[in-house]
Amino acid sequence: MGAFRHSSSLQRVAKQLGDRATLRVLGPDRKGIVAACSDLLNRHGCSIVSSEHYTDYSATPHSMLFQRILFDPEGLRDRSEVKTKVQELERKFGVKTKIDWRDKSPKVAVLVSKHDHCLWELLLRQQAKELDCEIPLIISNHENLRHVADTFQIPYYVFPVTPETKLEQEQAQLALIEAHDIDVIVLARYMQVLSKHFLSRYADSQIINIHHSFLPAFLGGRAYHQAHDRGVKLIGATAHYATLDLDQGPIIAQDVVAVSHRDGPHDFVRKGRGLERNVLVRALQAHLDQCVLVYNTKCVVFSD
Amino acid sequence: MGAFRHSSSLQRVAKQLGDRATLRVLGPDRKGIVAACSDLLNRHGCSIVSSEHYTDYSATPHSMLFQRILFDPEGLRDRSEVKTKVQELERKFGVKTKIDWRDKSPKVAVLVSKHDHCLWELLLRQQAKELDCEIPLIISNHENLRHVADTFQIPYYVFPVTPETKLEQEQAQLALIEAHDIDVIVLARYMQVLSKHFLSRYADSQIINIHHSFLPAFLGGRAYHQAHDRGVKLIGATAHYATLDLDQGPIIAQDVVAVSHRDGPHDFVRKGRGLERNVLVRALQAHLDQCVLVYNTKCVVFSD
Amino acid sequence: MGAFRHSSSLQRVAKQLGDRATLRVLGPDRKGIVAACSDLLNRHGCSIVSSEHYTDYSATPHSMLFQRILFDPEGLRDRSEVKTKVQELERKFGVKTKIDWRDKSPKVAVLVSKHDHCLWELLLRQQAKELDCEIPLIISNHENLRHVADTFQIPYYVFPVTPETKLEQEQAQLALIEAHDIDVIVLARYMQVLSKHFLSRYADSQIINIHHSFLPAFLGGRAYHQAHDRGVKLIGATAHYATLDLDQGPIIAQDVVAVSHRDGPHDFVRKGRGLERNVLVRALQAHLDQCVLVYNTKCVVFSD
Amino acid sequence: MGAFRHSSSLQRVAKQLGDRATLRVLGPDRKGIVAACSDLLNRHGCSIVSSEHYTDYSATPHSMLFQRILFDPEGLRDRSEVKTKVQELERKFGVKTKIDWRDKSPKVAVLVSKHDHCLWELLLRQQAKELDCEIPLIISNHENLRHVADTFQIPYYVFPVTPETKLEQEQAQLALIEAHDIDVIVLARYMQVLSKHFLSRYADSQIINIHHSFLPAFLGGRAYHQAHDRGVKLIGATAHYATLDLDQGPIIAQDVVAVSHRDGPHDFVRKGRGLERNVLVRALQAHLDQCVLVYNTKCVVFSD
């Protein structure tokens, strides 16, 4: 199995103990499902490192169960057997499950325009092993940030998008993304609205966007200027999965920072940069550590 | 002059030094206004305790100056002379000024419905001398909170409001408020929309409302339920001056608190209670300490 | 079984679903313990509402497991049978367990001196059903806060403590506390150091103290004055279990608030009041909701 | 006069309005000093952009005045005349003053060891014009971070320090620092204790250090490990001026972040990295924008 990687707190402490895998379960709440999952892993030689389980009794039409188990598969001889057994649980309880063996890092494509702060943050955090992923390529509609990519020796591809060429360029982007076998797309202040076609290719909560406001306040463009006009005393940033409804996708993380009358629109933008990069990294970390479960328009975000 | 009162940090430290007064100035930025104000106070025997001054160069059609001077009028013989001189400055520089001698506490009327948390907070903070005001009466449209008022021996008046009786009841409320010579009206989760008539009687930034969301998100009623439906990760509260545009008045203070998937709508409400009372008190403190200057739809909030 | 009580988020949502109980497990990490607990509860008709489980690999001499299961015992016929089976698990795995059926509210005694802010907060939160407990008595070494107790019709006992009478008074306090069958003692700014004798009677993490600093900075008395002298830019408060080592007990909760050069020692005290009451309530909530597991000198605090 | 630079909020808004200068005043509180300063600037053609003034009545042996005026010297013909007049004020009122014309950026030397996070942050913020300074050189006792310096094309000098060579190496460092006419030295996790000799050469609040704890908790080395052992629920970082008393210098900025039982010592270190870089940048910004006035062992930090 793969070498130890530093994505999470437990992995780090547990360096000598081997790799970690996760089992996530989502579905209608049924008596016995928690015990069944723990028992299954246990019987196949896996130790449970940590687990979290939550039941949403306000969900309709029936209560929903969300579960995340981080386990040590060291004593496991046959992965496929566990997989088969988990599929049996799926059928028996009518739930959805996802196993991640975490023996190779997920691949992340970063899309940017001209703002560099989120890109720097992502690349520095990945380099510091705070993001458990590979970043094999950066895509932009402008040349501006090539030097950042170069610093980390990551290929940088430019697709100049115009209203006329947009769909065509997106096709080329998608081809590149698929060629690299990308797992997650991060829109790091990418100033283009993705087409329905693009979004539906990665519709399974695989595109993370950072919006420069405390959603649902200040939808759309020039959010900081809207906020300044309104005279708010806090500004926010929101990381969410991109869906067909612009700025309406499930929220993964949010944060705010204080502003005062002394702060002009430029200061909102400056303070917002600090916020955006932090919120985006926090959301991506949660995603990469398999802490997020999406249900309807909301995210359950477990602690790692 | 009045006895020492504990409203602000400087007053407290300066106990032996006598009272404090404020001079606030708002208007088009003109060279010399800052020096003129300091000089005027100085020449009349007042010592400047602290001052803050800010110029908004983004204001239109011309830059705007905002100034707050906290001064010690101990050495002042004749207030009316200072008043006259300040009025001369008003004319010379084309600004608005406001002097508060702070020798008697402002009078606050609190309007409530059924939620008690903001009312308790206001009364406890006033009792602890953290709010520099008197609260001579509490007005409600329900009997529910009479016991809270009784605890602090404050008269509690009930005006049951129905769509039919609303204007009539407001007239009676206004008569009572005027009879008590009220300076500030605090809507401490008062669940009625005030009429245009009522609002225009206290239109000079004299009505403070607490809204249970991070405005401008989730306007109107059931804000926490709206927030829960959207799946936000932070909830907020906003204190603002009430104006004719519902939930659109100048924002004085805002704050947020984290929520998670474990929090149902009831938890949003519970966590929100803690927020609302804090934000409302902070806004009222700023108002009572003469730290707020309103310009167009925004508040300049100086530190005390 | 007892009526529904509003202590926690899940209980509130689950109003119609019956009561909630918790099983907490602490001990050396053994393969199979998680599955065994879930399975046991399941086989006896209990549904798991939520659970959290964490393994501390840095503990010495061996890894330690911490687990909290919130379950619905509605379908359970015989509590004693579950108890017996859990004791079998204890022996088999060498762990400690604790079951709380939560069908009656824990009883809390509050000890105070002259500061009223923590006492008001505790009583208001309990009244608002945000603290799942009864408060049958308040003990003080001064008469000062009797009016607060009277407001909530709670008996208030005064034991004037002097160096000479201290041990004798403590005996009387302990007799009263035991007569009321108290589960938790809260030192809500009680300005006396408890004797070794008193502490050892409630040594099993049953005494919660609020210290007015960000421990371990500023141990002992006049913490805010120490902080002011040092020129800190944040002040803190710490809730911890009281142990024989003054201010050294396991920390349950901490928080901070910003201060500036404008804040004198009195402002530190004032701002600290807001902090202390919040941190104390948060710690007591975690304790009452059986979210805390103490190991050596530290607390594992699970989310409710 | 120098070109516009983007250090502060007001400068940015005021792009077309010319440069900004500051006058800072510190000394015993005397009636008339505020008016005198404003008046002086005004009479010489300077417009006051913003000002803040604070009197510390708790200072001993007499009240202390702190003042910062940000002014626009556009209409000023003769700087030396203003300088002379300000010196007259110094003598008349017995205060200390400092004028910064801000027409050239201060020069900052960054000292590092092996941790890169603070260095990246300083260089990226300087590049984004969020730090109003030049960084002409980076000094280290290790080769490790040369690639970071190279990315920004900043000279990187290595002085391998051993107990034997320490004083000698410091001499060489000081020679280099003086040759570059450095105004501020930033210890960006420089893991060496500077000698008394070095410190006294830049004793006038010119050396800023970042300490990885919430001072005064956890002095000295391995602060995060100390914090983990104590079981704290928040960790902190502190930026302060370095003085002869290790970790005892005047505090400029502090912040904290929450930790939980899930966080091992490595997670404290990881979370602390985010804190340290933010706190250090905030402190350096305040210093560079001439917002800090040091008195005894404390900093008055005005808003910009």
Automatic annotation (TrEMBL), chains A, B, C, D:
One of its GO terms (biological process) is 'de novo' IMP biosynthetic process. CDD domains: FMT_core_Formyl-FH4-Hydrolase_C (cd08648). Residues 22-104 form the ACT domain. The keyword Hydrolase applies. It comes from Phaeodactylum tricornutum (strain CCAP 1055/1). This is Formyltetrahydrofolate deformylase. GO terms for molecular function: formyltetrahydrofolate deformylase activity. SUPFAM superfamilies: ACT-like, Formyltransferase. Keywords: Hydrolase, One-carbon metabolism. NCBIfam families: PRK06027.1, PurU. Its EC number is 3.5.1.10. The keyword Hydrolase applies. InterPro entries: ACT-like_dom_sf (IPR045865), ACT_dom (IPR002912), Formyl-FH4-Hydrolase_C (IPR041729), Formyl_transf_N (IPR002376), Formyl_transf_N_sf (IPR036477), PurU (IPR004810). It is an enzyme of class 3 (hydrolase). PANTHER family: FORMYLTETRAHYDROFOLATE DEFORMYLASE, FORMYLTETRAHYDROFOLATE DEFORMYLASE 2, MITOCHONDRIAL.
